[in-house]
Amino acid sequence: MVKKIPQRMCIACKVHKDKKELIRVVKSQDGQISLDFTGKKAGRGAYICNDINCINKMVKNKLLNKAFETPIDEETYLALQNEFESKM
Fold first, then answer.
1. Residue 25 contacts residue 47 (beta carbons within 8 Å)
2. Which residues, in sequence order, are CB contacts of 74 under 8 Å at separation 6+?
3. pLDDT band at 3 (very low <50, low <70, confident <90, very high)
4. Residue 35 contacts residue 23 (beta carbons within 8 Å)
5. Strands 33-36 and 22-27
6. What pTM does this model have?
7. Could you report the per-residue pLDDT of 17-55, keeping only the tens digit for each?
């Protein structure tokens, strides 16, 4: 029997991909938002492509506000963008 690979949708480009190909953005219980490269952190998750264009679109259009149903400040978006660029 073939094991089904979980699919998730990028919040920026709306393309469905294998979960392992995407980066998870996590909002923890205390409201902290961070990138989760392992996919194991606890909290509400949203997925984004491992692509600078999708990261830039997420920041420009403030896409996490809709995904997490809460306002998120500009500093958090810039911190996520810097964290992504430092991993590249």
1. yes
2. none
3. confident
4. yes
5. antiparallel
6. 0.90
7. 999 999 999 999 999 999 999 889 999 999 999 999 999
CA 66 to each of CA 12, 61, 86: distance values in angstroms, whole numbers, following the listed order: 11, 10, 26
CB atoms near residue 4 (< 10 Å): 6
Task: Give Cα 52 to chain centroid, integer Å.
Answer: 12
Which CB contacts under 8 angstroms, 24+ apart, belong to 30-33?
31/70, 33/64, 33/68, 33/72, 33/76, 33/80
Cα within 13 Å of Cα(6), Cβ side: 6
Q: How many angstroms separate the CA atoms of 59 and 2, rounded?
A: 37
Structure tokens at 76: 């958090």
What CA–CA distance (Å, rounded) separates 46 from 71?
15
Chain centre to alpha carbon of residue 13:
12
